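Anyone able to model this chain together with flavin mononucleotide?
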Amino acid sequence: MEEVSAEEAFDKFKPESCVFVISIDKHGKPNGMIAGWNMKCSSEPPMFAVALWKKGYTHRLIQQSKEFVIAVPNKELEKEVEFFGSKHGNEVDKFGETKIETAKAKFVKSPLIKNATINFECKLEKEIDSGDHVIFIGRILASYVNKNKKVLLNMRKAANKRIFEEF
Ligand SMILES: Cc1cc2nc3c(=O)[nH]c(=O)nc-3n(C[C@H](O)[C@H](O)[C@H](O)COP(=O)(O)O)c2cc1C
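re: yes, here you go
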């Protein structure tokens, strides 16, 4: 066994699922980002948590709007995962640029992603400061599944490129 930095050990901790975290600004304009640091964290009531970097735009939007949508991608959405996970919503209109298909949510204003494998509508229940990230815990108000679709996993990096596979 070899002692390494936490960062290097985190990097080895793969495969890792990744989810879109979708929120809206004060005018109702949607933005999305990708979070690999995500988990289910209660079944009754159903809750889902994501750890978001404090300097990201989504962090600010969820603090304002107190809601978000979690959308779990599949291979069809791999390009959008790279795009949403590398651009900032205060600089780029990610929904407009990718023309990713959305669907209306029932209980929140943030949109669902129509072709995602799973969508959760969440109301912000709690936020916990965890260092350079904040953990947002959302109460799931509605869940949707595209039953014939699979889930995208971030497997590893090769030549500085992320390798995704479906499971
Ligand atoms: C596979 C993948 C996983 C990521 N995981 C996280 C994460 O868990 N938390 C986070 O804050 N950013 C994560 N990011 C980075 C954000 O998605 C990225 O900084 C994004 O541009 C933020 O967008 P925003 O500024 O519009 O919120 C991840 C990116 C990728 C591609």
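The chain has one domain: 15-166.
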